[in-house]
Every structure is written in structure tokens, then in C-alpha cells.
Design goal:
By secondary structure, this protein is of the alpha+beta class. 30% of the residues lie in helices and 27% in strands. The protein is built from eleven helices and 24 strands.
């Protein structure tokens, strides 16, 4: 029997050498006529597949949408799904986000935790087994997608052309094992403001905030036209609410910026939404009565992350409470407005009832809502044999006695006929995905390599 702990430590340098290569690529989506998701995303896919090819694995690139690295023989496939695209780095990093840096045992880079670090941990687990001469009786296939942070088009394209694994997991969440994931709904509500009237002293010329629905926005900007000086009111608001921001003006036009704290939209309660904070200032101003009422309704609807403002608060024992994130808000000079939101509902919730309530709310704004993307919930019973194997390996390696968990995040496990999320975060791990100074503990990556190597061995021996 192999000593997986000793081997994981031995392979740490190989992990570092390879993960640096892909973390250095700023694989954020860009529009492109040549590449499905932009050149940088394609570079990350090409580099990952080259690593696999150089190490003696079989590789395949599926039209630039996704690819896989594989070894072993057999009719069945054990699928390991990860993604190489990342969200924008944002501002305020202590180290350059695409220059991976180790400080005090922590690896800093955009994608270190979500999801390039865990992908490389799973890859090194495969390499470790292959180098030791282990011949799996199933094909072990690491599938790498390229559009997970947006629309999942890459993985959809992949499975339209490639075989579905018998079972699989994604290293894109947390241990011990995630047996349930909430339903995920991205949508937009469009409506119109009315602008200034005879009684208003302030009006919105434009507002722009948020660029990813699955991130709590950390900055919101608005240009207001005001007949009086807004500086004192704005600085008082920042001070009273322990916020940071800026205000500049040219004549009667005031540019306001409010800073929040960005976190992943699956846990919006841990962040500070810059949009709702900016709205809480704007609704105090002497706007037109119609716009004041409209914006107060929006602030009421989206300032609570549990959905209670939209009459959508619900919860179950399997997956916990519904969560809501206002991910974007735009107002144009023509007073056309759009809200973008990310909503995650419990696995037992009625999706159609959620949609009906969103329609009811939109009517209050004299607007309409449109679904942009929907991922149904994922749920496997805790006693499923596959889950029990994953759990037993985790508990054996860590000495714990954990049971399966649920979460609000959406992972590639949903792309599988039978799949779950499995690592690579531990209960003690800092959750830094989608945040500035994203990082992982190198000790966690070593432990993840050990767990993945052992579980691949157990599932395919």
C-alpha cells in the first residue's frame, strides 16, 4: 500500500512548478472572434493540457471550450471536473494577482483557491499514482472547463461531444463532501426612472455598479445632478455607516463612489454590497417623489441577503436558507435601469414559485424580469455508495468523523449524471474565493493531494 501522506509531501515542488504556470495566466473572460472565451482563457487551457502531455498523459482539446487529461483503461470513467477561468482580479491586492507569491505558507494569486490550485492538486494526485506504477481499472479523467464563472457554455460543449463519466467529483468547494447544492438563478429586472420634476433637487444622471452576478460588488459609482452641495451629506453618511468612498464635482454634477467588501455570492451575508450601500445614501436625497419611492422599494428588496425583501425568504434542513445578491445595477442618462441579481434557493424549494414571486416584485417597479441562467439544485442522499467512499477516505486521512454537507455554491458537479463537490477547502481554510488577496494554504494543498490520490486509488483499483 502506498504511503499517500509521504508521497504528497514529496510532490509539493511538482505542484508548485505546475500551478505557477497556470496561475500566471490572467484567464478572465474576454470577447473574441478567435477564441471561445478570449485568448487568456485559451492560453490557460493550452498550458494545462501541455503539462499533462509532457507528463505522459493522454490529452484532448475540445474546440477550445474544454479539455481533458486522462490515464488508465476500462469502460467506466471517474471524472474529476475543474475550471481554469477566473473572475476579474479587482483592486486593492497586496501582491500582483497574476504573479503567484508565497508568503508565510500561503500561495497568493487570483485562482489559487478558485479553482486552479485545487485543479492542480487533483492533477498531481493523478501523476503521483501514475509515477508509482498504479494501473487503474477505470479511466481517470481530469476535465478542465473554461467558462464556469459565467455561463457554463464550455462544459456544455464538452459533454455534447464527449462521454459522460459514470461518477465524479469537482475539487471546487470544501471537504468532507457536498451532497447538496442549492438551485441557482441569475436574472435581470428592467424598469425606468422618471428623472427630475418641479420639486426634486437631485436626480440621477447615471449609475454603474457590478460586473459579475456571482460576486458581491465592492464598488458602486453614480453621477448625480444636484442644486445644492452634496459633500457634507455624503461624508456624514460614510462616517455614520463606517464606509469608504469619494465625491467629486464639476458644477452641479457630483460623482459619488462607495466601496464595499466583495465575497462570493453564495455567502452574500459575509460581504458588504456597494450597490445597496450607495442606494441607502441616494434614497435620503430630495429626488422626485416617484423615483424616491421606486429606489426605496429596490433598496428594501435587495438590502436583505435572505430574500425577505422580495418575500422570498425560505429554508430547508437539507441545504439551508435562500440567499440573494444584487450583483449589478445600471441607470442610463435616458433613465433606463436594470438590476442584475444572483439567487440561490434551497433544494426543496419550488422553482416556479420563486419565479412567480420575482414577477410580482417586478410589477411593483412597473418593470419586468428575465431569467438569464438557471441551474437546478443538486441532491444525492448521504448514504449513496459514492459519497460514502469519499467520506471514508476523508475521515481516514484526517482522523475526523465528518458527515456530508450542503452548500449554496454552484459547481461542475451539476454537469455530471452522478457527481458531488469534494474539497479542496477544509473547515479551517480561509475562504478567499472572488476576493482580493485570494490565497490557499500550501499545507491544505498537500493534504488535498493526499486525499485525492487515495480516493482515486480506492475508486479505481
Amino acid at each position: 500500500m502506498m504511503d499517500f501522506k509521504q508521497l504528497s509531501e514529496k510532490y509539493e515542488q511538482e505542484f508548485m512548478d505546475r500551478v505557477y504556470r497556470i496561475l500566471s495566466i490572467p484567464s478572465v473572460y474576454e470577447e473574441s472572434e478567435t477564441y471561445p472565451y478570449g485568448k487568456a482563457v485559451d492560453d490557460a487551457l493550452q498550458e494545462t493540457l501541455k503539462i499533462g502531455e509532457d507528463d505522459g498523459f493522454t490529452i484532448k482539446n475540445i474546440d477550445g471550450h474544454a479539455g481533458h487529461i486522462e490515464y488508465g483503461e476500462g469502460e467506466e470513467i471517474l471524472g474529476i471536473l475543474g475550471h481554469l477561468d477566473v473572475v476579474p482580479a479587482g483592486k486593492g491586492w497586496s501582491t500582483p494577482p497574476f504573479e503567484p507569491t508565497v508568503i508565510d505558507g500561503k500561495l497568493y494569486a487570483r485562482g489559487a483557491q478558485d479553482d486552479k490550485g485545487p485543479v492542480m492538486a487533483a492533477y498531481i494526485a493523478m501523476k503521483l499514482l501514475k509515477d508509482q506504477g498504479f494501473e487503474p481499472k477505470k479511466r481517470v479523467r481530469l476535465i478542465v472547463g473554461t467558462d464556469e464563472e459565467r455561463d457554463w457554455k464550455g462544459i456544455e460543449h464538452y459533454f455534447a461531444k464527449e462521454e459522460m463519466p459514470k461518477f465524479g467529483f469537482t475539487p471546487d468547494a470544501s471537504f468532507p463532501v457536498i451532497h447538496a447544492e442549492k438551485g441557482l438563478l441569475d436574472g435581470y429586472i428592467t424598469f425606468s426612472l422618471h428623472g427630475e420634476d418641479e420639486e426634486s433637487l437631485v436626480s440621477i444622471q447615471n449609475l454603474q455598479a457590478g460586473d459579475r452576478l456571482n460576486m458581491v460588488p465592492d464598488e458602486a459609482e453614480a453621477t448625480l445632478v444636484s442644486s445644492y452641495d452634496l459633500h457634507e451629506d455624503f461624508y456624514h453618511f460614510l462616517d455614520q455607516n463606517n464606509l469608504h468612498g469619494e465625491i467629486d464635482n464639476i458644477g452641479n454634477q457630483y460623482k459619488l463612489t462607495v466601496n464595499g467588501h466583495s465575497v462570493h455570492a453564495s455567502k452574500p451575508e459575509l460581504g458588504k454590497n456597494a450597490i445597496t450601500e450607495l442606494l441607502s445614501f441616494i434614497i435620503q436625497l430630495p429626488l422626485s417623489s416617484q423615483d424616491e419611492n421606486l429606489l426605496k422599494e429596490i433598496h428594501k428588496g435587495f438590502s436583505k441577503t435572505d430574500g425577505s425583501g422580495l418575500d422570498l425568504k425560505r429554508e430547508d434542513n437539507v441545504s439551508g436558507p435562500l440567499t440573494l445578491n444584487m450583483g449589478s445595477l445600471t441607470v442610463t442618462k435616458e433613465q433606463k435601469a436594470q438590476i442584475g441579481f444572483n439567487l440561490r434557493y434551497p433544494v426543496t424549494a419550488d422553482y416556479e414559485a420563486v419565479c412567480d414571486q420575482l414577477s410580482n416584485y417586478s410589477q411593483k417597479l412597473n418593470g419586468k424580469w428575465e431569467e438569464y441562467d438557471h441551474l437546478p439544485s443538486l441532491y444525492l442522499e448521504k448514504d449513496h455508495p459514492f459519497i460514502q467512499t469519499l467520506l471514508s477516505v476523508y475521515n481516514e486521512v484526517t482522523g475526523e468523523n465528518e458527515t456530508a454537507h450542503s452548500m449554496g455554491g454552484a459547481t461542475y458537479a451539476r454537469a455530471l449524471d452522478a457527481g458531488v463537490a469534494y474539497g479542496a477547502m477544509f473547515s479551517h481554510s480561509p475562504d478567499t474565493a472572488h476576493q482580493k488577496d485570494e490565497h490557499v494554504l500550501l499545507s491544505d494543498m498537500r493534504k488535498a493531494i493526499e486525499i485525492y490520490a487515495k480516493v482515486i486509488y480506492e475508486l479505481t483499483k
